[in-house]
Amino acid sequence: MVFVFALTSASATAAPVAVRFPEAATHGFLVLRGPNGDVLAHGEFVQAPAKGERVESRLTFRFKDGSLWDETLTFTQQRVFRLMTYHQLQRGPSFPEASEVRFDRDTGRYRARVGNGKASEDTIELPEDLHNGLTGTLLKNLPPRASAAGHLLTFTPTPHRLDTQMRVEGEDKFFVGDVARAATRYLLKIEVPGVKGVVASLLGKDPPDVRFWISTGAAPGFVKFEGAMFLKGPRWRVERGPPRWPER
Fold first, then answer.
1. Most exposed residue of 62, 65, 83, 242, measured as fewest CB within 10 angstroms of its CB?
2. Where do the structural domains in the chain lie, given as residue ranges?
3. 3-state class of 25 per DSSP?
4. What is the residue-level pLDDT of the chain in tens, covering all 248 positions?
């Protein structure tokens, strides 16, 4: 079922990732499951052209316990993908504490609040290969068997830059009805750079690995996600969710 590629021959992209499949208007529905497969939340993904040459993408999950995950970002796709703005809100009992973060490439500013603490607000230099909220899009655009490097930002509430590596880990089979399909399984490796990374490793607090499944073929598409959606978070699974129709 799983075929492991020879990664030694894969090409590595320093970033940013080049556009192979331009993003367009999209509206889809998702389901989020816990470690035991139980449904925790239902999600909605909406993407559409925004002002100028930007595309706006919004992902929301509404949990059964009343919790909310709401992530909105804008990006450009002239030759390469470039994250421009980001806003993420999480609150409710499914999360250890409420948080809200936002940053803007044009102004170079960020604002973040975690829990009941004081908000952190200042200027920040955003890497060109930053991919908060854009990881799935970048993976769809990687050439076959290619890998890429990038960065993520996390907030405590002060910002911390994480190094990332995205590479092919294998290929898995899934079914649509009785028809077998193939999906490439990507590993997203997250590391804390520098001295902080050494300390985190010694304390056993390395960020957990995350995996994405992207369908193969002429038009690659998201199939599944597995991993933590926030630092020290549980391992959740996100898949496409069919709508439920009322009974007649």
1. 242
2. 7-240
3. coil
4. 332 222 333 334 446 999 999 999 999 999 999 999 999 999 999 999 998 899 999 999 999 999 999 999 999 999 999 999 999 999 999 999 999 999 999 999 999 999 999 999 999 999 999 999 999 999 999 998 899 999 999 998 999 999 999 999 999 999 999 999 999 999 999 887 754 543 344 334 666 789 999 999 899 999 999 999 987 789 999 999 988 899 88
